[in-house]
Amino acid sequence: MTHKRLLMVFAHPDDESFGMGGTIAKYIADGVEVYYVCATDGDRGTIPEAMQGQYPTIRELRLAELDCAAQTLGFKNVLLNYKDSGMMGSETTHDPDCLWYQWQHTPEDVTRRVVEAIREIQPQVIVTFNKYGGYGHPDHIAIQRATTEAFDLAGDKNYLQVSLPPYQPQKLYYTSLPARFLKLMLNIFRFQALVRRKPFDPRRVGTNNDIDFLAVIENIEPIHTLVDIRDYLEAWDAGSACHASQGGGGMTSRFPMWLRQRLMNKQGFTRVYPAPSAAKIDEHDLFAHVNAEPKRELAV
Fold first, then answer.
1. 128, HSE (Cβ side, Cα atoms, 13 Å)
2. Are the C-beta atoms of 133 and 178 separated by less than 8 Å?
């Protein structure tokens, strides 16, 4: 019997559900084993005042929300337990225990931990952020680079010879943001600012005005794979709702379901390996052309 295994490698509790909730639900329904390597504990996240004090620490709250999403959507968690770095340029990026600091000073250690996860889980398909880390968060960029390096090193028999046996995944994807949707959101932001008679700077958006929305659009990469998720939008919402401290949904949930079923019923991905022959959509399944061999037993 063959087993398909999908591994997501992102930075924070909520990255998996906000970004890929519909895709996770679709592949879980198809019988795929879905794993999530979560690099940080999300302890720098901004928490609404009404939710403060529910847990002793922000870390415990964020990880409880991640457990909720895992149970709701059906994926399995692997935690690397780095501290959240906060946004680029903030004082928190100098914390020696945060992911960005570790990536800047000992990148080989971060990469090694991702390699070990790949060899343990043995996924045929891996998904991580695009090169800009979605919206430029340092933790997103760090784990994206580590995962891209680990994809090749995991199959190198000369790398970490005393660790787990080498295992080479078959496909590597970056999450891809839909350009039309982002441009629509930009126009909505501008309209809201106009109605409220407030200035609007597209280089400074978000709760803390620390996201460069134009840079997000400028760093969009080509889509090669479109996965139909129209039957899993409600499951996506349910998984995202677990992350209530971070807004509980992300941008897509702001739109009525009928509109999402018409305009947001597919999720795009950039295929990094095998390299596409052209910048065009040429598949509709992350497991297209994958050889789903039985999972071998690991040596104890």
1. 29
2. no
Contact between residue 28 and residue 2 where contact means Cβ atoms under 8 Å apart = no
Q: Provide the 3-class DSSP secondary structure of residue 34.
A: strand
Model confidence pLDDT, tens digit, residues 135-175: 999 999 999 999 999 999 999 999 987 778 999 999 999 99
For the purposes of burial, counting CB atoms within 10 Å of the CB of 57, is it exposed (0-12), middle (13-18) or buried (19 or more)?
Answer: exposed
Model pTM score: 0.92
**Cβ neighbours of residue 74 closer than 8 Å, sequence gap 6 or more:** 24, 25, 28, 34
Q: Which CATH number among 3.30.559.70, 3.30.390.50, 3.40.50.10320, 3.30.1360.10 corresponds to the domain 1-177+220-300? A: 3.40.50.10320
Task: State the burial class of residue 284 (Cβ atoms within 10 Å of its Cβ: 0-12, 13-18, 19+).
Answer: exposed
How many whole angstroms separate alpha carbon 114 and alpha carbon 119? 9
Domain ranges of the chain: 1-177+220-300, 179-218
